[in-house]
Amino acid sequence: xxxxxxxxxxxxxxxxxxxxxxxxxxxxxxxxxxxxxxxxxxxxxxxxxxxxxxxxxxxxxxxxxxxxxxxxxxxxxxxxxxxxxxxxxxxxxxxxxxxxxxxxxxxxxxxxxxxxxxxxxxxxxxxxxxxxxxxxxxxxxxxxxxxxxxxxxxxxxxxxxxxxxxxxxxxxxxxxxxxxxxxxxxxxxxxxxxxxxxxxxxxxxxxxxxxxxxxxxxxxxxxxxxxxxxxxxxxxxxxxxxxxxxxxxxxxxxxxxxxxxxxxxxxxxxxxxxxxxxxxxxxxxxxxxxxxxxxxxxxxxxxxxxxxxxxxxxxxxxxxxxxxxxxxxxxxxxxxxxxxxxxxxxxxxxxxxxxxxxxxxxxxxxxxxxxxxxxxxxxxxxxxxxxxxxxxxxxxxxxxxxxxxxxxxxxxxxxxxxxxxxxxxxxxxxxxxxxxxxxxxxxxxxxxxxxxxxxxxxxxxxxxxxxxx
Length: 469
Ligand code: G6P
Prior knowledge:
Layout: E1 4-12, E2 15-19, E3 25-29, H1 33-44, E4 48-52, E5 63-65, E6 68-73, H2 77-96, H3 107-127, E7 128-137, H4 144-151, E8 156-160, H5 168-171, H6 177-184, E9 189-192, H7 195-209, E10 213-214, E11 217-221, E12 227-234, H8 241-249, H9 251-263, E13 269-276, H10 283-295, E14 304-311, H11 318-338, E15 346-349, H12 355-364, E16 367-370, H13 379-387, E17 394-398, H14 403-406, E18 411-413, H15 418-430, H16 433-449, H17 452-468
């Protein structure tokens, strides 16, 4: 029976599987910003979350975790390969990130994407109460808005796109470009990270479908010939700042930061990179620039260390397998050439860490390096800024991230320009404490004002406007 006033649809459920000492299985909500932002809404509106538990062939009944109703979607092994690893992460992901890796186009992947999107849409349509709201998330589910509208014309539908939307010349490569636009246009509000993403989307709609576009509004013809208006604009996402502030203030976390410094031999300067191991993140460019600075004698491993956390991601997709080989070869070469017995040039960690440890790393880092070649937002940049209540530390930030639109006082870089990147790293290392705190204060003001709650409120307000239209 349809009971939820508010239904979130995302590829992943917001839970982690926890296996107890006796082998019993429980689920704990994962600490992501999205779930934190939506939790109050989920509770007050009798919400439900439709998503995949992250394992093939896992058949689960709907269940509750920490007061949230979860509706699991089952994917077969071949659907994980064709829909998730294939179309979502080897077609759309590289295409939408400016073809940094070549996108693969396979008709059977597309067929699996349509089939799986329909399964998510059906589950949402079955769960949502009359005149309720459905909020669909991200590139794995671009067809769901229109599919939900066909099944349930009474509901209000939002879609938020967490990754970039590409320029038309690139988007036009997609063999199913018109179907994807139609899928997204099933939503009343289509949210993007940057104004530029919304502009590219509106251009694609105008050029491919020839729909009338006025400002952010699109006139979309319905099946009955009636027109309705969909709105596409930017809603830059952020983090749930509260747990970061709390952890950064904790004495044990600060002690851990000092311990990290000491265990590296108390270098004068610690540089930090934190990324999913993804070719969009510019990890290779960053390490190359850093290696050259050592090679040139501008940095000395006796007093500088780079900590690179590269968390494992999408490990069965070819482009990720190759990237890992490339990065690990580069790190080993630089360390082999420059390490001393007591000091390492790069401390490379191919692991994920709990949030406490991440905050300790942020506090230990004098310079945070975010050098993505293309990134929807980059929340690591915002996490670093949020934790620096001491107003110290320098953020080096690629101009190709959504965060660059807001975090204007960062040291901006074009990561493709290795000489420019080297100079930016030196500028960050040599920045005076007074200049650091002037910049960090302004950065923190922005991140603390526009947190994930402000983001979800503004999106939901736009959806409420759409309902009144
Ligand atoms: C990006 C995407 C998310 C995705 C996350 C992790 O941030 O925008 O939709 O969940 O990466 O990737 P994964 O493939 O592990 O879900």
